[in-house]
Amino acid sequence: MPELPEVETTVRGLVPVLEARRLVSVEARRPDLRRAFPVDLRQRLTGARITGLRRRAKYGLLDTDRGDTLVFHLGMSGRWRIDPGELGPHDHLLLETDEGRRLALNDPRRFGSVDLVATAALDDYEAFAKLGPEPLGEAFSADTLGAALRGRSAPIKALLLDQRIVAGLGNIYVCEALHMAGIAPGRAGGRISRPRLTRLVEAVKAVLVAAIEAGGSTLRDYARPDGELGYFSRQWRVYGREGEACGCGAPIRRRAEGGRSTFFCTFCQR
DNA sequence: ATGTCCACCTGCTGGC
DNA sequence: TGCCAGCAGGTGGACA
Question: How long is the CA A231 to C1' C8 vector, in angstroms?
């Protein structure tokens, strides 16, 4: 689930519950995700007021009036459950607001993370220091992408997944954007012409915007205890569609490398 | 530095 | 019906 659009949707879904609310209870139920929670998480967060909610790359940020920002990452299987009712074994962090709303960070595979960082020092936070530009910002352009790819021989697919080049894309949206731009996933990053770089940047932005819009239309799902999310999956052009017909009629191919699947069309993507 | 692979962890699906 | 291999949205470390 959690690439940039899903994290953006998550943060937007948390706003009505958390914005300007004070946390009256903070409970770490199983604090060993990818990294351990900060040992003083509960102490520093209990009684704090949430002053703003933001996203950076695939991270969600909750600013507090204590000068700390809670930084969460959803890994592969993370999500926030709003007013979950019965708690399960994968509800690792539990928050309760002064309005009596409850939030559970649920992450079965435990690839996610939770950190507490001084808001003023976020730029120096290790996970953020090396991140590339936001793909929806002006800093992500044919100019900047071209500069980042210059001389690189690795496949463009792998380079777009590198968060230092552009921050927020994952396996689904890279496959989708490359198909939309007509670029073969195995093409060397440094060997993409300028006009095609422009198309690629536009495709990345377009697919992310469309996915955020689709997520936004189902925001209410975040309030459901079962938490099933449909979202953008119905609009995938190639991802998860091996053997189905591409728009050109040719069968969509799947290739596995380094443990990840790439979906593409050999005719539309060169 | 760059490119590539693998481990981390749990749950689900499909084939036998 | 039951078991097991294979696969899953991410990241970071090890290696050549």
Answer: 17
